[in-house]
Amino acid sequence: MALGKNVQTGRNFRAGRSAIISAPHSLTFGHNVSVGPRSVIQVDGQMGNFLMVGMNVHIVGRDDHAIDEIGTPMLFSTWSGDREPRDTDFVTIGDDVWIGASATVLSGVTIGSGAVIGAGAVVINDVSPFGVAVGVPAREVSKRFDDQEQRDRHLALLAEWDEAQSLSTTSNQVG
Question: Which of 152, 162, 161, 47 is nearest to 105 (CA)?
């Protein structure tokens, strides 16, 4: 796993073999995050707690290179890390999100807490909290839970689980 200097991770972060994780400016992960082997995350953003990224997932910029520089070959066009960040450079992924194997997420989107992204999907638009999105381009086909009460209860239980684990980790530290 290669982890870039502009990346911050929470506790219990793990990434599989040959995963590449970097950011032009800043990328932050929450706690209890798993990134699958051969995944590439090269984007600015904020990723939540309990994030599960399958193998061979790509979370990358949609505007990484300027395509409108007259007289400049694409190979030498301005890279997103050499300019000020834009809103379209950023990815926000909520808590308890599962991104299936070989999915692609382009920058400029928000994936709400509790969402599921199907294997092979290409996410170019926002996905609502607890939405299940599949296809190319990805579109929401269902929700993980039927009603708001179930969603609220699920998030409350996750918060309790995270707090209990946090206390357990702290009490097990030496010195």
Answer: 47
Residue 2 pairs with which residues in a beta bridge? 20
Q: Which residue has the tokens 């999915």?
A: 103
Phi then psi dihedrals of residue 152, to 5 deg: -60, -45
CA–CA separation, 31 vs 38, rounded Å? 21
What three-state secondary structure class fits 62? Answer: coil
Q: Give CA separation, 108 vs 119, 157, 171, in Å.
A: 20, 29, 39
Q: Does residue 65 have an active-site annotation?
A: yes
Check if the beta carbon of residue 43 is closer than 8 Å to that of residue 26.
Answer: no
The pTM is what? 0.86
Question: For the chain, how far is it from start to end, CA to CA, in angstroms?
Answer: 30
Q: Which of 25, 31, 58, 65 is catalytic?
A: 65
Tens of pLDDT along 34-54? 999 999 999 999 999 999 999
Bridge partners of residue 63, in order along the sequence: none
How far, in Å, CA of 97 to CA of 75, rounded?
35
Q: Is 145 exposed, middle or buried (0-12, 13-18, 19+ CB in 10 A)?
A: middle
* Mean pLDDT estimate for the chain: 88
2-145: CATH class: mainly beta
Write down the domain spans for the chain. 2-145
